[in-house]
Amino acid sequence: MLFVSSLLVLTFAFSGQFTHMDDHDMSMHRFPPTAFFCLFPLAVIGGSWLIGTWSFRRVATPVAEVMNAADAVANGDLQVKLKENQRGPFRGLQKSFNRMTEALAHAEQQRRNLTADVAHELRTPLHIIQGNLEGVLDGVYEPTPEHIQATLDETRLLARLVSDLQTLSLAEAGQLPLYPTQVSVTDLLQDAQVRFSGQAQLAEIQLLLDLPPIAENWLLDVDVDRIEQVLNNLLANALRHTPAGGRVTLSAELQSERIALQVQDTGTGIAPEELPYVFDRFWKSDPARKRQVGSNSGLGLAIARQLVQAQGGEIQVASAPGQGACFTIVLPLASDSAEQK
C-alpha cells in the first residue's frame, strides 16, 4: 500500500508540474527522465505487491480450509467435507481429503459393527451353555450324554469363533505367518475333491473335477495349508447350499500369468443386493441369522479373502438367486510354470 500511495503522489506531482508548462516547455519536457526513473521502479514494485497478495490469498484460502477440516477430523468429526470448488491441484487435494474422510468413516462404522457382531455371536452359545448347566444343577435336566454333548458343541463353537477371529485379525494386520511351497493345480484340486467326496455323497450331490490335461504343468507358490483352508470353506458352503441332486464343480483356467481356481455350485444362489457384503465379517446368507447344527462362525469368507490377498491373489463371486454361485480364486502363476504354459 505504501508503494501504491507513493506512486500516486509522484504521479500527481508531475502532473501538476506539467500543467504549468506552455506548449514549448511541454514539447521539451514531455517525458522527463527523472519521472521515468522514479515511477518505473515504484510501478514494478507496486504491481509485484498486488500480484503477490493475490497469489498468496489464492493459495492460503484453500490451505486454511484443509487445515480447519483436518482439525475437525482430529477431534472426531468424520462427516466433515470440503467444497470441491477450486481448480488445478487444490481441487485434487479437496477430492483426496474427502475420500480419506469417507474411508475413515467407513472403517469406524466397520469397527462398531464388528464389536456388535462379536457380542451377538458370543452371547448365544454362552446363554445355551449357561442354561444347560443351570438346568442340570436345578434338576430340570438329567446329566445325560445328549445334554452334555449339546453343551460341548457350544464350547467348540466358541473355540472356533475365537480361533477364526485371531486368524482374521492377524491376516488383516499382515502378521499371519505363511509358508509357501510349490504345488500343482491338479494336486491341489484333486485333494480337495477327495476330502469332500464323502460329505457330497451323503448329501446326494455330485462333486466334479473339470481340468484340462495341461493343468498338470500349472504350478503355484502358495501356503498350501492356507489355500486348502480357503477351498474347504468354499466347498463346505457350496455343499450346504446345494440341494440333493445338485452339482458342485471344481475347475481351473489360465489367465495370462495367473491361475483362476473356481468352485461352482447349482444351489440357491445369492441375491444381488447381498453380493457386495459376501466377504464381510459375520455375513450369512440367512437374513434371520438362524443357528443350525454345524453352522459356521460367519467369518469363513472374510478369512478366505484375507488369506488369498496375503498371497498376492484375489477372490471374487458371481451369483444369482436360483442359479447357484461361482467363487473364483485368482493366484499368480509360479515362475517354473512359465515355460510350460
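[next item in queue]
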Amino acid sequence: MSLRGFIKLPILLLSLLLLAMQPAERDRRMAREAFSAGIRKGVINHFEEALDHFSKAIALDSLFAEAYLYRGMAHLELKENKYAYEDFRTALKLDPSNALETYYFLGLSSAAMDDHYSAILYFDGAIAISPEFFHFFHRGQSFLATAHYEDALKDFEVACRMRSDHPELSLYRAMALYHLGRYDEALSALRAIEKVFSSDGVWHYYKGHSLQAKGEEAAAESHLARAVKPAHILRREMAEALEAAAMEGSYDTVALHELGEGYYNVSLEQVHPSGIGVQIVTFSKPDNVQEIGRAYQERYAYPVFIYVSHEGEAVVYKVSVGNFSTRTPALELRSRLRDDGYTDSFIVSYL
C-alpha cells in the first residue's frame, strides 16, 4: 500500500466513526428538545402532554436522568403515584448527585401510596442533605399518618419556625396537638386559622372533637355537623374494617398460592374480565387477599378481581374493582376510591 493509502485509511476510519456517532448525538439533541417541550407543557399544567414529551425524551435517551425526574413529577400531578415512584427511583440511580430533589419526590410519591414509613426515610435523606421547610412539613404529615404524634408535632414546630405564615401547616400542628390530648393548645391553634378554614370539614372535625373532649358538647355540636374525617383517620378505619372482615371470614391461603397466572373472582374461580377496572392494591403474600377482596366487593358493589402474577420467582396478587365498558364510570370509581384514602389506585385495562 502506498504512503498516500496509509494516510487516507485513518481519515476514512475517523469519518466512519463520526458517522456512527451522529445518530446518538442527534437523538440526544432531539431528547433535549422533547424535554424542553415537556417543561413548557408542565408549566401551564398540561401534565398529560408533558408526560408524552418526557416519555419521548426517554425513548431517545434512556440515560436522561432529568427526563425521568420530570416525568415522575408529571405522574405525581396526575395521581399516578406508582409510576411516579418508579421514575424517581430510576432518576436517583442515573444521577445520585441530584439526590436532594429526588429524595423529596420519592417521599411524596411513597406518602401518596400510603407507604408512610418509606416516605419518612426518604424525607430523612432530604433533610440530611438540606433541611428545608417542605421536608419537615411532609415528614410531619407521614408521622401523623402513622400515629407518631410527638414526632409529627416536632416536625411541624420546626417548619413553623421556618415559615409561620402557612395556614395548612397550622392546621396539621393543631391535629397533632389534638391527638396528643393537648386540647386547649389545639383549640387555640384552630381559632387562629378560623378565617381561612371556616368552611373546611377537617377543621370542623378537629374543632368539634377538641371541644367535645373538653366536655363542651353544645359548642361542639355545630362543628361536628359540618365535620369531615381527615384522610389518615379514614384510611386507618378502612384498614381496621378490612382486617376485621378478613379475620371473620375463611380463606384458603394454600389454594390461592397455588393458582396459575390469571384473573380470579373472590370465590377463586378463574375468570376473563373485559373492559376497564381500577386497581386498588398489590399484595406480595396471599394472606387474607381473598377476604379483603370480598370486603371491597361488598363495600363498593362492583365485582372484584384478583390477578395472580408470577414475576420471576415471586408471586404477587393485584386486586382491582369493576369491569366497565367505558372510561367514565371507571374514573368515577377511581375518584371515589381516592376520596376513601386509596390515593394510589389507578385505571387498568383487562386483557
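[queue empty]
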